[in-house]
Amino acid sequence: MSLLCDIGLWLPEIAAVVLSGSVTLFADVMKDGNEILATVFALAILLKMKKGGEFKYDYGMGKFETFTRSATGVVMLVSIIIIFFAAFHRIFVPEPLQTAGAYLAIPLMVISAIIDTYLWKKNYRISLSDPSPIMEAQWRLRRTKSFADIAVLLSLVLSFALIGYSWSTYIDPVISFVIIGFLLIAGFREISSSLPDLFDKTLEEELQIVILHELSAFFTEYEGFYGVRSRRSGSKIYIDIFLGFDPGLRMGEVQATCDRLRAALEQKISGSVVSIVPTSEPAGPAHR
């Protein structure tokens, strides 16, 4: 739905840019292009997830999901550079907006603001019930788009309402910097939040404390601690804990301890998938 709405509004908005000559509308078209790219990535990931793992024995689509967020952020930052130079050029070489473009752009921005606000609220509700990086990025993107739509609408209305004043030609390029601000915030957020997960960042200190606390609680039930490995994949946190047990214990007793420790950790660490691995030697290189 998001992709169809974006494309359906983007094409007439491009026509409005050509007809009006608005640099603010041009900035919004560039921003919308980035958002269409992000939505295409999100759709591709969701369709892949719908097909299932197909016995690939991996951690899922989390890494690809995170990579696409980074790629979207980079495209946003490139767009900022293009819009920045276009806005500065219009400030030094001001031009009045063309009336024909306004007749198309103003109602288009009203419709766009209504649709984006609806999708923002809808995606936010989905994100609350089933959290994931995709849905969080989507509702934040729609929220940014809603505010940007209002900024563009305000620019167009003021430019034509005050067209009799010589300084009104500067309203359009000045408000385009608001769109640059929206893009800058969104692009920085996408990159800064995704890069740590691409490099398998260490679990937050509070989660490490939870693991250590539970290991301490089970201290008398195992003989050796050989390490912890963790990684994130989408909304899931995979944690492998390597423990040594008394060789004289029955496998059933070892399994019972592993099950209780796993259940305790998964209850206290939301979204975690814990594996307790009985072993007699240190684990390999840690994934943190």
Brief synopsis:
The protein has 288 residues and is mostly helical.
Helical residue percent band: 55-70%
- Tally of contiguous helical segments: 8
The overall strand count is 3
Rg: 26 Å
Biggest sheet layout: 3 strands, mixed
Shape: elongated
Q: Tell me the count of domains.
A: 2
CA-CA gap between termini: 37 Å
Helix-strand pattern: HHHHHHHEEHE
Give the spatial strand order of the biggest sheet: 1-2-3
Q: Note the beta-strand portion.
A: 5-15%
Structural class: mainly alpha
The overall average pLDDT, rounded, is 78
List segments where confidence is low: pLDDT < 50 over at least 5 consecutive residues.
none
Would you write up a description of this structure?
By secondary structure, the protein is mainly α. Helix content is 69%, strand content 9%. Strands 1-2-3 form a 3-stranded mixed β-sheet. It is elongated. The protein starts with a helix and ends in a 10-residue tail after the last strand.
Task: Please outline the helices and strands.
Elements (H helix, E strand, L loop, with lengths): L1 H19 L2 H29 L10 H31 L6 H31 L3 H29 L9 H28 L6 H13 L6 E10 L2 E9 L6 H18 L3 E7 L10
Parallel strand pairs: 2-3
Antiparallel strand pairs: 1-2
Helix pairs in contact: 1-2, 1-4, 2-3, 2-5, 2-6, 3-6, 4-5, 5-6, 7-8
